[in-house]
Each structure stands twice: as C-alpha cells, then as structure tokens.
C-alpha cells in the first residue's frame, strides 16, 4: 500500500524538480511548486516510515521515540502544507473577479480560523502520545525504559537498543506502579 503511494510521489517529485529548474526564482508559481515539492517529500517520508514500521513490527522491533516524533512533525507539516497548497490553487484557479476576491478572503479567513485549532489539537495529541525514553542499567544490562504515564498509573516497558533508530522488546515484564509520574526522571 505504501509503495503504491510512494511511487507516484517520487515521480511527481522528479517532475516538480525539473519544472522548478526551468522557472524563474521570483515567480509566484515557483512558490506553489516548491510547496508541492515539500508536500511530495513529506508524503514520501510518511509512506517510507509506515512501510518500514510494518516490517519492523513483523520482526518484533520498533522505532525509537525520536523517529516517532519526527513522523508526528511530518504529519503536522503535511496538514499545513495542504492548507497552503489548496489556498494557492483556489487563488490561481479563479479569474480576476468578485468571486475570486470573495473566495480568497473566505479561504484566508478559514485558514486563520482552522490553523490555531489544528495546532491546539496536535499539541493535545502529542501530549498523550509522547512517551519519554531513558537509558537505564537494570537487570544487569543497559536497557531503554519507555515510560507511559496515565492519570492514576504509570507503566514502564523495557527494550534492548539495536541501534540509534531501532529497539527490540525484551522478555522483562512491564512494571506498573501507582501515580502519574516518571520514576526515571531525575531532578538536577
């Protein structure tokens, strides 16, 4: 599935790069093409992440937390770039008339209204999906402790580091304790 989306993105990425190379750098259409370029790159990254994540899951591996955060940031950027591209496309599509002026004002006002709501929603999602990771020495070896804090309980899952991007689930059972705090978070 991800390959079916990634291949057209790669082809459109190459086409956009060729078109940008032929255009002037001051042209407004060039800004639109650069937005499409970034949109294609982000879509390619999202598809690649999902494809690799599927194969990692099949082999009992997962990505480290910083890659998940990068994926979340790419998803947020994708949404904002789609809003920009839609606004620019609506502006270029309409002829110079009162309808175009009305629609451009309407789309700008909608973007101004939607963007803060999206930012707050994404911060809310990030707050509940971000799990801190700590490198700890427990059970006579170095492990990565991933702490999931809830409202009344917290859970610590242990992983073996494979490399700087991937970790493997260990046979050590998860620890669950009362309280909504990170027991590995030290005050310095």
Number of helices: 4
> What is the domain tally?
2
- 3D shape: elongated
From the helix content, strand content and strand pairing, which structural class follows?
Answer: alpha+beta
Mean pLDDT: 76
Taking all Cα atoms into account, the compactness measure Rg is: 22 Å
Cα-to-Cα separation, first versus last residue: 47 Å
Main sheet properties:
6 strands, antiparallel
- Helical content class: 55-70%
Count of strand segments: 6
Strand content: 15-25%
| SSE order, one letter for each helix or strand | HHEHHEEEEE
Unreliable residue stretches: 1-5
Structure description:
- With 188 residues, this protein is of the alpha+beta class.
- It has 2 domains: 2-129; 133-178, no CATH class.
- The chain has 4 helices and 6 strands, in the order ααβααβββββ.
- Strands 1, 2, 3, 4, 5 and 6 form a 6-stranded antiparallel sheet that branches.
- The termini are far apart.
- Keywords: Membrane, Transmembrane, Transmembrane helix.
- The chain crosses the membrane at residues 31-52, 72-90, 102-128.
């Amino acid at each position: 599935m991800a390959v079916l989306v990634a291949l057209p993105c790669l082809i459109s990425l190459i086409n956009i790069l060729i078109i940008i190379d032929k255009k002037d750098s001051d042209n407004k259409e060039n800004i639109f093409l650069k937005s499409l370029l970034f949109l294609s790159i982000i879509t390619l990254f999202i598809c690649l992440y999902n494809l690799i994540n599927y194969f990692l899951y099949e082999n009992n591996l997962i990505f480290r937390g910083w890659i998940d955060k990068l994926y979340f940031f790419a998803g947020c950027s994708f949404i904002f770039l789609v809003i920009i591209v839609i606004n620019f496309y609506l502006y270029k599509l309409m002829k110079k008339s009162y309808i175009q002026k009305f629609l451009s004002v309407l789309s700008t006002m909608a973007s101004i209204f939607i963007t803060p709501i999206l930012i707050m929603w994404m911060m809310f999602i990030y707050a509940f999906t971000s799990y801190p990771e700590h490198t700890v020495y427990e059970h006579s070896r170095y492990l990565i402790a991933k702490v999931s804090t809830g409202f009344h309980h917290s859970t610590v899952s242990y992983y073996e580091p494979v490399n700087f991007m991937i970790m493997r689930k260990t046979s050590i059972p998860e620890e669950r304790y009362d309280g909504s705090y990170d027991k590995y978070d030290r005050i310095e």
